[in-house]
Each structure stands twice: as C-alpha cells, then as structure tokens.
Amino acid sequence: EDQVTQSPEALRLQEGESSSLNCSYTVSGLRGLFWYRQDPGKGPEFLFTLYSAGEEKEKERLKATLTKKESFLHITAPKPEDSATYLCAGTSGGTYKYIFGTGTRLKVLA
Amino acid sequence: KAGVTQTPRYLIKTRGQQVTLSCSPISGHRSVSWYQQTPGQGLQFLFEYFSETQRNKGNFPGRFSGRQFSNSRSEMNVSTLELGDSALYLCASSLGSSQGLETQYFGPGTRLLVL
After folding, report:
1. Residue A95 pLDDT more than 90?
2. Which residues on B lie below 8 Å from A96 (Cβ)?
C-alpha cells in the first residue's frame, strides 16, 4: 500500500537553530513529491515539487531534497514566522493519487 | 490571479442532516480534488473531478459524493451526517492535464462541525 510518513511529529527550535524534517515514502512509481506549509485554520500553501532522486530546490530559508526513499526539508536559521505544519505528499504512478503524510508541527521560538 | 475559493467557511450541522460544500478553482484549472483533514488522520483524499467526470476516488462511504460543473466549479455533498464527519474539508485545483505531476493549489477550507 502506498504510504508517506513524516518525522518528527513535532519540533521546537530556537530562532537560528537549523534542522531538517523527514518525509519517507513507499509509493509505487513515484511521479512527484510535494511540500506544503499549513498555518492554523488555513489551507496548505505550496512550497516545492521534486520529481527525481538527486533533485534539490530552495526558497529563502528552505531547501528540499529527494532520494529514492525519502525527502528532506532543511530549514536554515529559522525565524518565528516559519512556525507552521509542514506537509509532504507523494503521487503514485499507478493511481495518480496524492498521498499525504500527517505533517510535522514546527515551532520556532524567539 | 484569484486563488481557490470555498464556501461556506464554517458550518454547524446536526447528525442525520446533509450538507453541500462549494469550491471554485483557479481560472483555467480543470481538475478539482477534495480532501478531509482531521487531527488524527491528516489529509485523506475523497475524490477528484476533471471535465465534469469523477476521475479518481478515495476510500470513503457512499454518503460522500461530488460533482463538477462545466465551468469547473465543484460541489461536495455529505448525506446523513455523523459526528465523525466533523473536519476541515479542503478543495484543491490543478490544470488536470498531467496526472500526478502537477501542483495542487488549495483553498482555505470549510470547517464542518457535526453536533
């Protein structure tokens, strides 16, 4: 069964303390790996799409990478405004469904 | 370009009632997907519509149904509401031409509370 697992469930960082969020997937024929940010009471906001192992994308303090088994979202020198839930999703080559992980709740303390 | 809009934003219903939620996709997007988000289960895929046809379906009971109109707007209906249907219902749109490769853009969601 296609599955996406995110870890840790929750993460507290001091402002400026860099870290990584993990998204491991067992999705048959992965077509795309997507990262979203979700603030409380709002819909997910698109961050990155990765299509092949070895691919990397960056945006401000965020960098997403993809291997054959997992994806990482690296946060460099985070600020309090980076506090949110980060979701990843993989799309299956068989069903084309977007399969979401349960997210990592990130809290950055000033 | 306007984003995905969902109405209403909040709903309170009682068990046994039915509810209809509406979603207007980004202009030019022909695919609309619906998700249920709960604290314990995360985002669960309900169904996807493309050009007025259901193209994909998740593992939800038949009480959950949807449709899409010729202007790509979509509605989702839940009949005979149960307490467990309380959730944030999210709609996402994409171009629809490259399944599994496209970015989905989400609306703000409809918060449904069933009493």
Report:
1. no
2. 56, 99-100
Over the stretch B35-55, which tens digit does the pLDDT of each residue have?
Answer: 999 987 889 999 999 999 999
Going by C-alpha positions, the residue among A107, A103, A106, A81 that lies closest to residue A35 is A103
Tell me whether B14 touches chain A (CB under 8 Å): no
The two tokens of residue A27 are 């999705």
Q: What is the DSSP string of chain B?
A: ----EEE-SEEEE-TT--EEEEEEPPTT--EEEEEEEETTTEEEEEEEEETTEEEEE-S--TTEEEEE-TTS-EEEEE-S--GGG-EEEEEEEE--SSTTTSPPEE---EEEEE-
Nearest CB among B35, B100, B104 relative to A31 is that of B100
Q: In terms of CA atoms, which chain A residue is nearest residue B101? A: A32
- Inter-chain CB proximity A97 and B56 less than 8 Å: yes
* B104 to A51: CB separation less than 8 angstroms, yes or no: no
Round the average pLDDT of chain B to a whole number and report it. Answer: 94
What does the pLDDT look like over A29-52, one tens digit per residue? 889 999 999 999 899 999 999 999
Contact between A99 and A89 (Cβ < 8 Å): yes
Residues of B whose CB is below 8 A from A36: 106
Does residue A82 sit in helix, strand or coil?
A: helix
